[in-house]
Amino acid sequence: MNRSSRHVAITGLGATTPLGGDVHTTWQALSAGKTGVCHLDLSSQCGHTLPVRIAAPAAVDPATQLSAAQVNHTDRSAQFALVAAREAWSDAGHPVGGGDAVPPAHVAAVVGVGIGGIISQFQQLDLLLRQGPSSVNPRCIPMILPNHAAAQVGLLIGAQAAVHAPVSACASGAEAIALGLSLIRSGQARVVLAGGTDAALHPLIVAGFSRMRALSRRNDEPQRASRPFDAERDGFVLGEGAAMLTLEEADHARQRGARIYGYLAGAGISNDSHHVAQPSPDGAGTVRAVTDALTDADLDASHIRHINAHATSTPVGDLTEAQALRTALTSATDHAAVSATKAAFGHTVGAAGAIEALTTVLALFHRTAPPTCALERVGPGIDLDIVGAAPRALPPGDIAALSTSLGFGGHNVALVLRSPS
Amino acid sequence: MASEQSLFQDLVVLLDKTIEDLIPEEVQPDSDLKDDLGIDSLARLEVVAAIEERWGIKIPDEDADELHTVRQTVRYIDQAASTST
Question: Which InterPro entries does this chain map to (chain A) (predicted)?
Fold first, then answer.
């Protein structure tokens, strides 16, 4: 079977984000123009005043949604992934923790992280230094491996076809979804739970991003701090959370009468190979990822009526991305309503690509492009039709949307999603 | 010194917090940690660490290896805790 004959449907969604502990709450808050960014000072954890004292913490502590044993066995990043995975899996009508609606040999899990189990690393290091080696958790190693969240999700759903943990910084969540698409097209899996997670609200991470001058320092105005594409943007706001999508071979989904939110029509992955953190000035890598995704989806740019941009709110990154989108889509850019939802979620690192893909699916499903809540005045050089403080209706009919994700290391991932028929 | 019954109940609470998918109601004094409760080698290390922390005792590896049932574990804790206080 060639790849084009295996269409991939999205049959389940799960999320725990700075806006809510589930998909419904998250979407309601996002559509209402709320932000998850707030005052959060981690200085007391390091004994020094941090230059950035704002963040977008998850709305619901995942530890309150899992058993005590699960919490003891997992890093916070995996806890987010488990909460989102449980929701996405049951939302698709698959039983969690028992029953074989799909044979495990046809099930895969792909969960990307940008930073991974850093909170557990520091907790365990602290125990080692203070109390000695016998105090280190016997599960320390599985908890700090980059595949920790993926392995936990794989165990949750009994994924025997494959478990993968793509790591591509802030593009990890999107890359996981692209890999899920490949697994279904190749026939290796019929159902894939794919997404991303991260929990890195730690003083070292704040200090490290601060040293790169990557974070907004609008400490006194947290709700106006994350403002992608705005003329006054001054950096991103660190967030945390997870999102998961149940991807399913479309014929399989139809045969079992599953609800279909939309389709994952194509993906494009490229690398700038230019600089470890800066985007390539001409945005060529991003352009290539977008055009490859369109080709992969067998669509032309005119089908794209909505874009969820990576747009983190950094001065350089947003401008380069905006120009790359226009280069890739040419005049079709004029007909695409662009949302930059990091305004509300902050930058959730490895989860970002998955949260934004999920948001894009919901935008197509509800025919509503979500707001870019903190936008006041579009910055110079950004020639895009950006959805401002109020949501905007999307046209009826068969339309497509684009979600872009970029990461340190030059990673570019573009996903093309298509409305339900 | 705590009674064996209250130690048993405390241990069940500890096992419930430490072991995923454990059904506390199914834990009996003669339950085998591995065969009945599914406590594998990694989980056993966690249980031992949790017991050490909970009761402020030290369980040498060679002693831990000899604890096969809940009852044996309760008695070990009872002895070790009374010796250490």
Answer: Beta-ketoacyl_synthase, Ketoacyl_synth_C, Ketoacyl_synth_N, PKS_Beta-ketoAc_synthase_dom, Thiolase-like
